[in-house]
Amino acid sequence: MSTQENFIEKDSFRDRVGFISEDGKRKFIYPKKPSGKFYKYRTILSYFLLTILFIGPFIKINEQPFLMLNILERKFVILGQVFWPQDFHLVALTFVTAVVFIILFTVAYGRLFCGWICPQTIFMEMLFRKIEYWIDGDRGQQLRLASMPWNAEKIKKRLLKNSIFYLISFAIGNVFLMYIIGSDQWLNIVTDDPSRHIGGLTAMLIFSGIFFFVFAWFREQACIVVCPYGRLQGVLLDRNSIVIAYDRLRGEPRAKFRKNEDRTKAGKGDCIDCGQCVDVCPTGIDIRNGTQLECVNCTACIDACDAVMDKINKPRGLIKYASENQIANGENWKFTPRLAFYTSVLVLLLSLMGFLIFQRVKVEATILRTPGQLFQLHDDNIVSNLYNYQLINKTPKPINAEIKVIEPTTARIMIPGNESQNFKLGVQEIKKGAMFIYIPLEDLNSGKNYIKVGVYNGDELLDQVKVTFMAPIKK
Ligand code: SF4
Ligand code: SF4
Predict the structure, then answer these.
(1) Which of 268, 318, 320, 327 to mutate to test the pocket of ligand 1 (most atoms within 8 A of CB)?
(2) Dihedral-angle region of residue 24 (phi above 0 means left; psi in -120 to 50 means alpha; beta otherwise)
(3) Which residue in 217, 316, 321, 393 is deepest, having the highest Cβ count within 10 Å?
(4) What is the pLDDT of residue 362?
């Protein structure tokens, strides 16, 4: 065989994906039920995350939802903080920070997110797949059931499984809707006259239908074909990224297991070609071929191979978390300076995101000197400047806002038509207008001065701005 033919033969697995058969039809994957250390940890984490996801819409912080992404009304609540369209700059900044975070995280840690945190993997592997194992049995029984004619047993099992699948999809669809419109409005939809909530009820059914389609039929295709993050792996991963990797130096040449044989003497690698790692793979790939786009880092093949290694008295870790370079150099995983650097940047980015969210002012005040106006010197040696102001209420409640000069304390404000300087600001309401600030000449420097103006709700300072105040040049 020529080198080129050899290469084509070696890489031919890249010409097809696990869920498509030779004749181009959908090939259902029936992965073997995983078990082992990683599966146990993933199960614990998944149930913890599922609990948060399902109770999340009912958690309130400052009377606001824990998380709500109302695209329809352009209202976003993150950790009880309400964001309106006026916060677009913040949303854009957070979005850019999140993109940088995702890129850096993936470059350093590969698809750790996909295997441990992604809702698609958690729902599929920890809810729907477990129900499938419970009703249809493990891989062998599932294969037998699939090839069976439509007899009473198959109809009964399919009906039962799909009914439970739909019920869970309906629950997920409802939770999804709650994250968009909030649990209060959702409660209103399900308890009120249905004819008044046709839109909401239709959305509920559409979401449930989509989830049922994804988890009952579409499955791994969501990760391989649809998910943009999955498709970006080819450009995000490098030879130092942590992936789930087969230690080919240790495993090859693979050969079947023979009792009492010294494999090292026989020149055989540790892989006994049992196919367990392939049978458990939910995306139908053979990780021994190297890193592949289809691998969602679910760790099932690590557990399967570790169990095999235990049985043949070989050390665990023939399939493990490692970078391509670590595999090539025969090293084990270690926290490298490169990982330490990326992790520090990630922590910094997370802190920045947190800072942006929590430092956001409740009322945004913009106060600028009116263009083309300098100052006026009055008979009583008081200087006045004219300003344009704009106040935006970003809190979820109406408030009473008052503008006061913080420094110098001798200053006073006059808002034509609003002597009290008090504004009733409705939710998201914007108030604009003009105002005068008066300051005694003796409290001012010559020419340009800086003063501090605050917006208060009672005694609470909501926002403060520094503005220029022009005064006559003193001789
Ligand atoms: S489970 Fe381990 S020993 Fe078995 S085929 Fe896979 S890599 Fe080889
Ligand atoms: S190759 Fe291993 S880690 Fe990747 S999807 Fe398959 S079983 Fe999961």
Answers:
(1) 318
(2) left
(3) 393
(4) 79
Give residue 10's pLDDT. Answer: 59
CB 442 within 8 A of CB 462: no
DSSP secondary structure letter of residue 250: H
Ligand 1 atom closest to residue 270's alpha carbon, by position in its atom list: 3
Residue nearest (by alpha carbon) to ligand 1 atom 4: 274
> Within the chain, which residues score under 50 in pLDDT?
1-8
- State whether the Cα torsion 21-23-26-28 is positive or negative: negative
Which helix (H) or strand (E) covers residue 234, if one does? helix 233-236
CB 305 near ligand 1, within 6 Å: yes
3-state SS, 11-56, equals CHHHHCCCCECCCCCECCCCCCCCCCHHHHHHHHHHHHHHHHHHHH
pLDDT number for residue 31? 97
* pTM of the model as a whole: 0.81
Query: How many angstroms separate the Cα of 323 from the Cα of each of 237, 330, 435?
Result: 10, 10, 63
338 in Cβ contact with 240 (< 8 Å):
yes
Question: Cβ(143)–Cβ(30) under 8 Å?
Answer: yes
Q: Are the C-beta atoms of 328 and 361 separated by less than 8 Å?
A: no
Task: Give the integer Cα–Cα distance in Å for 413 and 404.
Answer: 7
Q: What residue's CA is closest to ligand 2, atom 5?
A: 295
- Closest ligand to Cα 305: 1
**Amino acid residing at 12:** S
Q: What is the pLDDT of residue 340?
A: 84
Q: What are the tokens at 136? A: 């249809």
CA distance 368 to 280: 65
CA dihedral sign, ordered 49, 50, 55, 57: positive
CA dihedral 128, 131, 132, 138 (to 10 degrees): 120
Within the chain, what is the greatest distance between any pair of CA atoms? Answer: 110
CB 322 within 8 A of CB 109: no
